[in-house]
């Protein structure tokens, strides 16, 4: 199965991946963020979509805010459910391999020193949203690069659920990204406040973060 996936589709062809990674790296260098509509290799998107569709609802938990002792579930800030991804499944492994390749590329070309990666599936039910927030704060040296991919076939303009990226002050909108199937958003975690607008239908995504080595254990999970 895995052999077929890696060898049989050509969608994870190294040449294609390099073009995509180069485009992401250029954007990060120029602006600090990148949007790549429908760019996740189609074989990978299909595997992830299949896994999310087969996942029993009980695997998803209400997402919270804050870390460790400060962790609380606050439905005024975010209304989504999450499930952390491990390499124990074929889909999870394929996703983590892809994320590792992107990490290696960004390290090699932008010298970011990214050390580890964590990610979860997220399900925003109808009415779900995530108010403006930052994934990391300057000086904490924890999350450095955020990556989000969307797993929503047939997403329509009226369906809502866009990711809105703001300038570092959080006042000027920089970009609005529709969560269409296979779209990838990447941005510097400390620099761009962002929000998820209320969705009018079930919305599935993966959110992941690259960290530096040696982050403060007091603020870790
Ligand atoms: O799903 C998205 O578009 C972004 C989610 C997000 O900002 C987060 O989980 O921190
Ligand atoms: Fe976020």
TrEMBL record:
Keyword Oxidoreductase recorded: yes
Residues covered by the Fe2OG dioxygenase domain: 110-212
InterPro entries registered for this protein in UniProt: HIF_prolyl_hydroxylases, Oxoglu/Fe-dep_dioxygenase_dom, Pro_4_hyd_alph, Pro_4_hyd_alph_FE2OG_OXY
SMART domains xref list: P4Hc
Superkingdom of this protein's organism: Bacteria
Alphabetical keyword list: Dioxygenase, Iron, Metal-binding, Oxidoreductase, Vitamin C
Presence of keyword Metal-binding: yes
Cofactors named for this entry: L-ascorbate
Pfam families the record matches: 2OG-FeII_Oxy_3
Name of this protein: 2OG-Fe(II) oxygenase
């Amino acid at each position: 199965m895995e052999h077929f996936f890696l060898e049989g589709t050509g969608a994870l062809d190294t040449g294609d991946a390099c073009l995509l990674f180069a485009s992401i790296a250029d954007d990060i260098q120029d602006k600090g963020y990148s949007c790549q509509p429908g760019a996740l290799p189609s074989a990978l998107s299909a595997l992830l979509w299949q896994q999310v569709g087969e996942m029993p609802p009980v695997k998803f938990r209400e997402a919270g805010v804050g870390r460790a002792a400060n962790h609380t579930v606050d439905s005024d800030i975010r209304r989504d459910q999450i499930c952390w991804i491990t390499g124990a499944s074929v889909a999870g492994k394929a996703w983590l391999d892809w994320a590792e390749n992107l990490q290696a590329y960004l390290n090699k070309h932008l010298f970011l020193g990214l050390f580890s990666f964590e990610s979860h599936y997220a399900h925003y039910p109808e009415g779900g949203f995530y108010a403006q927030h930052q994934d990391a704060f300057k000086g904490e040296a924890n999350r450095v690069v955020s990556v989000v991919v969307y797993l929503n076939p047939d997403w329509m303009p009226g369906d809502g659920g866009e990711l809105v990226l703001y300038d570092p002050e959080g006042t000027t909108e920089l970009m609005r990204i529709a969560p269409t199937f296979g779209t990838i958003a990447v941005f510097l975690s400390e620099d761009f406040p962002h929000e998820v607008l209320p969705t009018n239908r079930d919305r599935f995504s993966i959110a992941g973060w690259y960290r530096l080595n040696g982050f403060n254990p007091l603020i870790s999970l």
